[in-house]
Amino acid sequence: MSSAQFDTIKDRGLRPALRPDQSIRLFPLDGPWAPLEELTYAAWWEPFCTWLLVSWILFWYCTAPGLLKYALIAFSWLVGWPLVEYGLHRFVFHAPVAWASRWGLPQWMQGCVNVGRLLAHTVHHAHPTDRRRIVTPFAMSAPIAIGVLAPFFLLLPEHLASSIVIGLILGYVQYDWTHYYLHCGTPPAQLPDWAPWKAWFQRLHKSHANHHYATFGPEQSFSVAHELPDKLFGTAHNSEGVK
């Protein structure tokens, strides 16, 4: 389909509720494309075995002085990642892809743009109860990470770039696990009252439910693991969102 057609798809009537043991299939059961299906799945623990390992290796090879290293890691984790998360979600995963047509890209390249966004994000909106497609598979997150993280190594000294990248990776892992919990974990209202994070998770859960299910949700609530970016950029859910 063309980019314009892709941007006009409305999926609200196409979201069957899946059981925890069910998952939709994107590629045919047989044929040359069948093996790619496994690359679209990810378990909740996958970031621990991939991205946390990458950050651990970078940490031990990073030559930045101790105080500077920890300060940069903390800053990029707590300040840098929330902005990256918001920017990617709003301006990449939810941006119209009609630009591919306007730029005069060949039809097959427009198709690649459509399929890339479908695999990375749209399929999750079409089937938000598909547990195997909540955490981003490494095969998809790695190319995105290269595009986001490579400029730091190209523009900054290695010890500074490594420290910043470690913090961004930790922020990403926090995002992936928070996202999975919001969809599959204990409903925040059922958490014990003594849990200090209960109110915070309730707000995150309401915001993310708004993003998926409210009338104007896809235009709001782009932050998943943080609240501040949506408030800063005026995209926090309003009274027309879900309760």
Briefly summarize what is shown.
This protein is mainly alpha-helical and 243 residues long.
What does the model show?
This protein has 243 residues and is mainly α. It is built from ten helices and no strands. α4 crosses α8 (158-184).
- Unreliably modeled segments: 1-14, 239-243
Q: Tell me the structural class.
A: mainly alpha
Number of helices: 10
Helix content: 55-70%
Proportion of residues in β-strands: under 5%
How far do the termini sit from each other?
Answer: 36 Å
Name some characteristics of this structure:
243 residues, mainly alpha, 2 domains, 10 helices, globular, disordered N terminus
Give the helices and strands, then pairings.
Layout: H1 3-7, H2 46-49, H3 51-61, H4 66-93, H5 99-102, H6 107-126, H7 138-155, H8 158-184, H9 198-213, H10 228-232
Helix pairs in contact: 3-8, 4-8, 7-8
